[in-house]
Amino acid sequence: QDVQTRRGGVNAAPVSAPECRWFAVQAKPRGEEVASHTLQTLGLEVFLPRVRRGAGRHGSTHAPRPLFPGYLFARLHPPHHLHAVRYSRGVLRVLGGREHPVPVDDEVIEACRQRLD
Questions:
Q1: Less Cβ crowding at N or C end of the chain, within 10 Å?
Q2: Are 106 and 57 in contact (CB under 8 A)?
Q3: Could you report the per-residue pLDDT of 59-108, keeping only the tens digit for each?
Q4: pLDDT tens figures, 14-37
Q5: 3 state SS of 18
Q6: Could you count the other beta carbons within 10 Å of the beta carbon of residue 73?
Q7: What distance in Å separates the CA atoms of residue 75 and residue 56, rounded to the nearest whole number?
Q8: How far is the C-alpha of 65 from the C-alpha of 107, rounded, in Å?
Q9: Cα–Cα–Cα angle for 77, 74, 109, rounded to 5 degrees
């Protein structure tokens, strides 16, 4: 099992700010890694849950794969970040309404992290 969470960037609003919430982001086909990296360069906290899928025929283990293929989570403040996220490389859309995406509860993200640990 593997979980990828990173923070970075210098010009973004702090990810710990109370107005920042988690949102589900749909990546372009097989573009989770690209979208994750691009969003991290914006200074956003990104959560791309990954799991290892069984052993191969010859005892080798497969590389970790996204738990939710095509999706990842990003912590952002929509008025500040939404436009940049929507037009980021690898991103197809932020789930929910066009102007007001639907946030994901912190408890859902935390439960997912705990299950993967």
A1: C
A2: no
A3: 666 788 898 999 999 999 999 999 999 999 999 999 998 788 999 999 99
A4: 545 678 999 999 999 999 999 999
A5: coil
A6: 24
A7: 35
A8: 23
A9: 110
